[in-house]
Amino acid sequence: MYPKWLWPVFALPGVFWLILLFLVPFYAVIGVAFGGVDPVFQTPVPAWNPLEWDFTSMSETLAGFLPGGEYWSIFLRTTEYVAIALTICLLVGYPVAYYVSRHAGKSKSILLALLVLPFWVSYLMRMLAWVNLFSPTGFVNEFLIWTHIAPHPPDWLNGNPVSVILGLVYGYIPYFIMPLLAALDRIDKSLLEAARDLGASPSEAFFHVTLPLSKTGVLGASVIIALPMFGDYYTPNIVSGSPQTSMIGNQIDIFFHGGPQPSVGAALTLVLSLFLAVLMAYYMITISRAQREAQA
Amino acid sequence: MTEAVVRSRPVTVRSPLRRFLDWARNPWGRPRFLVLVTWLYVFVSIVPVLVAIQFSFNAGRSVTAWQGFSLTRWYWGDPVNSVWHDPTLQSTLFQSLKLAGLDMLIATPLGVMLAIGLARWRGPASGPSNFLMLFPLVTPEIVSGVALYLVILYLFTFIEPGTIAQVLGHVTFSLSYVVVIVRGRLFSIGRQYEEAAADLGATPWETLRLVLLPLLMPAIFSSLMIVFAISIDDFVISQWLSCGAGCDTIPIRIYGATRAAPLPSVNALAALMVYFTLAALGLAYLLFRFMTRGERPGQGGHMVHGMGGGL
Predict the structure, then answer these.
(1) Apex CA A257: angle with CA B227 and CA B162, to 5°?
(2) What is the distance in angstroms between the Cα of A137 and the nearest Cα belonging to chain B?
């Protein structure tokens, strides 16, 4: 019906765009990370030929991740923040997704609309809202004083790790709930009915049927928010701005915008990408294994 | 039988007070706990934004203490500090709209063609290309930002950081969203309409223009609107490719303002962004509904899937 060459021709401009502005830029990061530094101006000299790669800044960067190294504490802190934020997302997000998927009934469509709404309010707008609420004269502190829970409320916005973690949760939890909700919706309801018919109590049916079947959904949703959380630098900057709470993304941001060391920044970006690629690969392997088990 | 009647009676005649007391006696019973958590979550996720928008209508200069209602002061009423009269705020508004407009005009046609091509092209490079298309969706923005920043600094040196670089960056991350939306529509319309047209004597060009393009129109319109929405909300790519104050977009300006003592005009700027995004999405939804009216139900789901699924 159509000539055979038509479809590749359609795809070509877009594929070229992605090669030129996605793959080549990524190679530029590699080139700068493995490049040298100009002895006079201290500016990076990228090495495009893999044979000319200089591994000094990369090995220094990697050494920094060892215990006691330059990035060790920042890496630990990043992992800790992301892990705690993920746990809170799970504890809040799972009940919400479960309720909307199973028990919402007539209010399901309105709840879905309300859950999607934060997707379409800019992340920065939501952070601005959060900062307004937590500012020293904001509603949160006024509430704490008014109810006498804390007559001298803490300073939330200057290096308070609690605010950074809550900011991360507030920013990313919508992206956790929606995929989890989709995964819970996909669970075959007849399996639950079978469990109930065979005498399982509601909680037994939940723990033995729903929870195991939603494991891949939880994992997928966690990966979806863990990847951007590991690269986040604006949330800690907005709600804290203190080196006490800086994450790995802040370190990269500082190397490019605050200091003359783009090659170290590039090496750090590369390490972060590799770490996230490993995370992604682990997820893909788990998913394909789960699919194979489901088919067997 | 009698037991069921006796048990069901109090449920039907319970007064609101009685229902509240029953509820208060056992707030942890399923699924009341879930109801509570869900509505609390919805409240916490949305109310801060509403409060921030409310303060864009504050009559005074505070973003935390309510000093009376003024509809226009921080939008255009104040002769010095309002969004319209403060040149730095006005320029960020126009920069955001300019980027979103150009992004729409470039990413949508490019993405529509890429989606059709990837869905139908069977060749040695089609698999890797499909794979490549997914990468921008899973790459953390800081990595794409650093990569684009370094490539224009050291390799594509003919591109200066600035509006052109920002547009190139925005198109790169928007492309995959267009592909996801259009591909869903392509699969839902199938190929039978085009085959019928070809059987009836249409040339390939006529089939493309008179059959496939009109059928894709709903997806094209929703792509336009969603590209607008994600472009106007973007912070990281715009910041890394910025040329300084002249290239600041609304999110960059908000980012700068949160660390200083902000005026409600920043809230007004942020609120404008919310209005634009919601208007674009409302328009996309209505147009999609209007253009797919009369089709079998269930197909509109592709747009919803495309809107949420890609994220």
Answers:
(1) 45
(2) 6
| Percentage of residues in chain B having pLDDT higher than 70 | 87
Encoded amino acid at B156, one letter? F
Q: What confidence tens digit (pLDDT) does each residue in B267-284 have?
A: 898 898 889 888 888 888
**Interchain proximity B142–A252, CB inside 8 Å:** yes
Site from A4, A5, A9, A18 to mutate, B interface, most B CB atoms within 10 angstroms: A18
3-state secondary structure of B122: coil
What does the pLDDT read at residue B13?
Answer: 63
DSSP letter string over A34-95?
A: TSEE-TTT--EE---SGGG---HHHHHHHHHTSTTSTTHHHHHHHHHHHHHHHHHHHHHHHH
Dist. CA B187–CA A96, nearest whole Å: 31
pLDDT of B23: 63
The count of other CB atoms within 10 Å of the CB of residue A107 is 15
> Model ipTM?
0.87
Q: Which residue of A has its CA nearest to B264?
A: A132
Ramachandran class of A150: left when φ > 0, alpha when ψ lies in -120 to 50, beta otherwise: beta
Contact between A121 and B42 using a beta-carbon 8 Å cutoff: no
Report chain B's C-alpha Rg in angstroms: 25
B159-195: pLDDT as tens digits: 888 899 999 999 999 999 999 999 989 988 888 899 9
Closest C-alpha to A163, from A228, A233, A239, A86: A239
Which of B51, B135, B259 comes nearest A241 by C-beta? B259
What gap in Å lies between CA B204 and CA B309, rounded to an integer?
32
- B172 closest CB neighbour out of A21, A237, A238: A21
pTM, full prediction: 0.84
Instruction: Considering only the beta carbons, identify the residue of B37, B147, B250 that sits closest to A29.
Output: B147
Nearest to B133 by CA among B173, B169, B181, B184: B173
- For residue B262, the chain A residues in CB contact (below 8 A) are 128
Amino acid at B206: E
